[in-house]
């Protein structure tokens, strides 16, 4: 069986060759949060709730800069498909310099703004103290993390997902060891967890910068910072920044609602959110493969292969979401014990995890379509779609804040709004776009 002259088995092999290593790298990233949650959770409910706020702020800050990876993947893969490896590598180098500069500014902003940011989320005194402490110790790692994003994007565009996998795997192990050593061995509390993560991120960024730098030099690209190239990368990532901002605002609204439902709901939300992040990044491995393959196909002006990648990655995404849903929901009663000894927190987390499990197939559809459109350079549409979905979600979240009870019932209502209403809005908008052809711009230049 074939599609447009491209056998399905060939497309499947290409998808899996990129997605399987990307899966390991992506799963390693939320494992940082899972390890932090498991280690800090046994310091008490206040510490776990504080980590929920601090990690949300950090993930939001890093997530806003995910354009460093996504835009770089799309640009590098398109230039590679068009046959210009030197230009492809130059875009990767410029992206890393942009990541470093952005990370320094963002890290300083979070360090000095930790207290007002935490206060804005409405935490009480002890939870706020824990959150601020974690932010102060983890903020110095942001330059490393953003360099990791840009370097990983460049390597994905080159269809090299094995190197990011190796670095992420080593980083996850180092992070776990440092967390246990600093939190328990040296009795540094939640601050030790933040410091361990920061040190790990800086090391990962340095290693990947060397790898991409060597490849760029071999291809004849320049290594020093170049203002014009950095500015071009920033402009290309602008629409994706807007798209990501809309997603992160939705997550912040969700945490704000969970905070208003009480410490038990907030702690339970941290557990559910950590598990959701693990599953979401696993599904996003297919989106990474779609980004690289779609960008390469459009750069080579191969529309038939673009359509074949779209169809097959969507099929894989929905099926993968169904499998993950069974695992997330079926085993929830067992693994929540890793995160908290509080029976109320466990009960709330299990109930909300069942909601998350049911919506996983739809999430697989959404993440893959995001990857396809990002790989095509369709950032402007994604920006407008992100704003539209946020407009749909906010009233649902506000209704939960106003009328839902505290505890398990309230957390379930919140996840019905987030994993149900919000994800459905994203599925409809991206699905409508993918049915047309306006996003399939071919050649080395994008819109």
Automatic annotation (TrEMBL):
First-listed, main subcellular location of the protein, grouped into a coarse class: membrane
Keyword Cell cycle: no
Transmembrane region(s): 15-35, 47-71, 92-114, 134-155, 167-186, 192-212, 249-268, 274-295, 316-336, 348-369, 381-400, 406-425
Pfam family, one: MatE
Protein origin, superkingdom: Bacteria
Compartments (UniProt record): Cell membrane
Membrane topology, from the record: Multi-pass membrane protein
Keywords (A to Z) from UniProt: Cell membrane, Membrane, Transmembrane, Transmembrane helix, Transport
Record flagged with keyword Disulfide bond: no
Stored PANTHER family: PROTEIN DETOXIFICATION 44, CHLOROPLASTIC (PTHR42893:SF46), PROTEIN DETOXIFICATION 44, CHLOROPLASTIC-RELATED (PTHR42893)
Family, per entry: Belongs to the multi antimicrobial extrusion (MATE) (TC 2.A.66.1) family.
Protein name per Swiss-Prot or TrEMBL: MATE family efflux transporter
Species in which this protein is naturally found: Cellulomonas edaphi
